[in-house]
Amino acid sequence: MLSRFKGCLVGAVVGDCIGAIYEGHYAKIQTSLIIEKLKKLDKARENLKEGDEKPLSYTDDTAMTQSVALSLIQKGSFDAADMAKRFAEKFFKEPNRGYGGNIYKVFQELEDIDPEDVFKPAAKQFNGSGSYGNGGAMRISPAPLFAFNENNDTKLQELVTSITRLTHTHHLAIHGAILVAHAIDQSLRCDAEVDVNKFIDDLITKLKPLEEKYVASSQDEPPTKKSVKRSLDEEETPYCAKLARMKEMLQDESLQKSTIIHDLGHDVAAVSSVPAAVLSFLIATQKIPKLKDLNQFEQTIIYAISLGGDTDTIATMAGAMAGALYGIESIPETWRACCESVNKAEKMAEDLFNLNNRSSSS
């Protein structure tokens, strides 16, 4: 299990660093080109000396993940003021990590706001509807590790919701982060062989009550509070609808990436990137013929990136799921050596693992 904890956080960093190479390519990318690019890392690794900067840098995905993990580890529970402070400090120390434009205002207010009001800056965004981006989902991997021993879906959802609401208050952002957290949690508890239909059904079982509850509670809300309607979001329960669509896709031997991009999405909206990450992870559990010479973690990352779009975030989410299933040994040593902050991710995973051991023995 320690290997899986490490695999989760290191997988997220590696997915972020490699995915960042292709971010903004809003079309599918040939897997052969990605593989050729990755082969060049072998030479880069040979030339690395101790203390050198890593060839591949992380983005805001990893920067915020680190803040989540360190806050949970050092506080031993969710501390909104502490986590918000870490987000803001990290941003102003290194603002060029690829943060979304609108988040600047949130962090600016978090620097000076009363600790009791840390959720207010995000709640004011977009005329009060909040951001529906994937910023909550991209950083959520430490949460299922922290809550692993409790094995309580409701508590995990509450933790994820609190972490997400510091920057993203729209229900699509929150539900997307919850979906990623449950996918990681299920991966940690899976056997090596994944029953993809059961995996998806379990996710639907957990997401459906949340989506239906939102639909019921939003009937009388003003238009500014209602979901942004964008093609595939016309469904009242978009995540469950896309999960159900995935089951069909996984049975389609001639599935085209253009179909995935059209039906699931690949952009910065949570509802258009989280499903793509889940599908990339699940497709690789069945092994991808064109990538048959690679292990399943490698297949996950390369397939996620090949969808194009918000490649760093899709790959970081898929990488966390795959690492949680296959363990750190599945992540190529060259990738680990060439990606920034891998050692830090491994240490944080170990700390989260030890927290779980202490809580289970007390």
Automatic annotation (TrEMBL):
Its cofactor is Mg(2+). It is an enzyme of class 3 (hydrolase). It is found in: Chromosome; Cytoplasm; Mitochondrion matrix; Nucleus. Binds 2 magnesium ions per subunit. Its main location: nucleus. This is ADP-ribosylhydrolase ARH3. It holds the Pfam family ADP_ribosyl_GH. Monomer. Residues 214-233 are annotated as: Disordered.
